[in-house]
What we know:
QueA-like, 7 helices, alpha/beta, 19% helix, Thrombin, subunit H
Amino acid sequence: MLKSDFNFELPEELIAQTPLKDRSSSRLMVLDKETGNVEHKIFRDIIDLLDKGDCLVLNETKVLPARLIGARKDTGTRVEVLLLKRNENDTWETLVYPGKKARPGHVIEFGGGLLECEVVGVTDDGNRIVRFSYDGIFEEILDKLGEMPLPPYIKEKLEDKDRYQTVYAKNEGSAAAPTAGLHFTPMLLQQIKDKGVNIAKLTLHVGLGTFRPVKAENILDHKMHSEFFMIDSKNAEIINNTKKNGGRIISVGTTSTRTLESVADDNGYIKESSGWTDIFIYPGYKFKIVDRLITNFHLPESTLIMLVSALAGRENVLAAYKEAVNEKYRFFSFGDAMFIK
């Protein structure tokens, strides 16, 4: 299977640059995975597509304001640091630009010295290991100095940091938002609960690898990035009871999907667990637990469109994407949504 099998033409003007004022007013394409039929709705109509006894599974990861703009302490050269992974003793794996200006021993300061880091190592793929020093609480300083690490295709500045968070974001650790969840409002979630739909939560911290292009022409040669997940016993029980009672498991986003499919046993049941997953889902994959999917519109030739194609069929998905382009849907992180039923 080739990555070019998942290519499509996307006019640049359809890439959403800013979020809508009302989260739930984005458009919603409904794709029938059996027939390929498409309907056009508004996202808040999702409530009509959920049945009493179903289970909506949300990823409650929270995006770190992980983009820091600073300067080399000795030269004043501008340096950008992107936090990727927290290690021990105030050390982080980071992406630094320009990398040539951040070699072991170099010190970078942020906010006039409110925060400093020393480069203490370099990974095999060129990322920098840095050790931070500061007075106070790191998270509070980061919240003050850091910017949201928006995807590279978003060129406009985000005025409100909270718009790159879901309304239920709780556990900090992501370098990118689980964007399918950005469409939900507290009111809509309450209406869904009131209808008798179960809501379960898990966490998968989204890494920047989610934006990494597939370079291998044969997709089987692609190496997936690894991401940390966790699900507790209470939420595992909600999901298992839904399944036992004949309800549908409706995953909100590819991140929830990857977590559920990583932890489910052969019978489609899960238990409390945490760890790292590098599961790669592409056409031919047999889903163990996920019945339906709410997702955004993804990049051509990405692992995300491959996952969606595994659930709904490649031809169905590409035909739906072609119609989305014709109907001028908004694409990617701040764009419109799709419900695969």
